[in-house]
Design brief:
Helices cover about 35% and strands about 15% of the residues. The protein contains eight helices and seven strands; from the N terminus they run ββαβαβαβααβαβαα. It starts with 7 loop residues before the first strand and ends with a helix.
Amino acid sequence: MTAVVLHEQRWGVPSGLPCVLLVHATGDTSADWAEVAAGLAVDRLVVAVDLRGHGESPRPGSYGLGELAEDLVVVADSLAAEQGRPVDVVAHSLGGLVACLVASRRPDLVRRLVLEDVPVPHPRDPRPPERPDGELAFDWEAVLQVRAQIDDPDPGWSQVVAAVSAPTLVVWGGPGSPMPAEHVAEMAETVADGRLVRIDAGHLVHARQPVVFTAAVRGFLALPG
């Protein structure tokens, strides 16, 4: 497994507070975080990445969740070394699963974790996505491969989630979200130190309720301990 170098966008400047690493969902890019990043960057460095196959990052054609995690480990490791402390990770949907893999494999790199509308994966009926028309900001093959891994997930996901030791805030988008409420709640219950908050915005919480979402994240990151 060979990691690729991910494209980054940065807001703010280094401070005495941990850097925040933002990880987007399938079919999005680092630009999707712009409004939230600006709100978080008032007192710290904020870095958003394009996952492999998305935005300006390489499109190697292979999109295993483990590969996406290895790419993100490289970024988190570099930021932790640069800042002299672990990072805080805020991640949406697919990005949340990738962040869980990173936090379970390298607990030394993640101080706190925020998972936006991220359920523990369970088998589900495949729903073949329809490719949008025109040029895409991501590799369509990445969507197909990721969906296949989520529709028929590795049976070890519960163990992965249970190995996440970083204090974790799970943000559920409420009944408008297509993610099963019980599986999102399971995420908060399975991590070692989890809590669940509901923001009624559907699956795109940070995009539809950026002020409320950012306030919830800032409050969680500021908690003692």
